[in-house]
């Protein structure tokens, strides 16, 4: 007789996804203690958003990222999808310290380009099992592409 593996409570798993993504957000926030000051000192393109916009946008995006991971998990998602998701969170976590604390806009650009590709791969993999999970990552990708253009412009202008 084989032992049945108990199903995890989906709400606890959602809390876990929210927690993991919150850690990424908090670490980024801790690495961005001087972000407003650094951002204000940079030569920026005319289409750069005000610094006050980043917090609210990222809060919404982080919730969407967590829910996307959870929805994918609910489909008994494949390891490749979770691997791409995790690598994306790692690249996300690295960008803020590289750009704001490290003063390494070039390395930050390389990081965000890798993040862009990783999120596209994640969307494709998630979309095979959950259209909703994939769709929740599309606004994130849109914001990342905008941030990539902004990172590029800041690198060129400074």
**Could you describe the largest sheet, including whether it forms a barrel?**
none
Structural class: mainly alpha
Shape estimate: elongated
Cα separation of the termini: 67 Å
Mean pLDDT across the residues is 91
> How do the helices and strands follow one another from N- to C-terminus?
HHHHHH
Unreliable sequence segments: 1-5
In terms of DSSP E residues, the strand content is under 5%
Radius of gyration: 17 Å
Q: Count the E strands.
A: 0
Helix content: over 70%
- Number of helical regions: 6
Task: Explain what the structure shows.
This protein has 158 residues and is an all-alpha fold. It has a domain at 54-158. 77% of the residues lie in helices and 0% in strands. It has six helices and no strands. It has helices at residues 10-30, 35-41, 54-74, 79-101, 105-127, 131-157. Helix 1 packs antiparallel against helix 3 (54-74) and helix 1 packs parallel to helix 4 (79-101). The termini are far apart.
What is the element layout, followed by pairings?
Blueprint: H1 10-30, H2 35-41, H3 54-74, H4 79-101, H5 105-127, H6 131-157
Helix pairs in contact: 1-3, 1-4, 3-6, 4-5, 5-6
What distinguishing features does this structure have?
single chain, 158 residues, mainly alpha, 6 helices, 77% helix, elongated, disordered N terminus
Structure in a nutshell:
The chain is 77% helix and 0% strand.
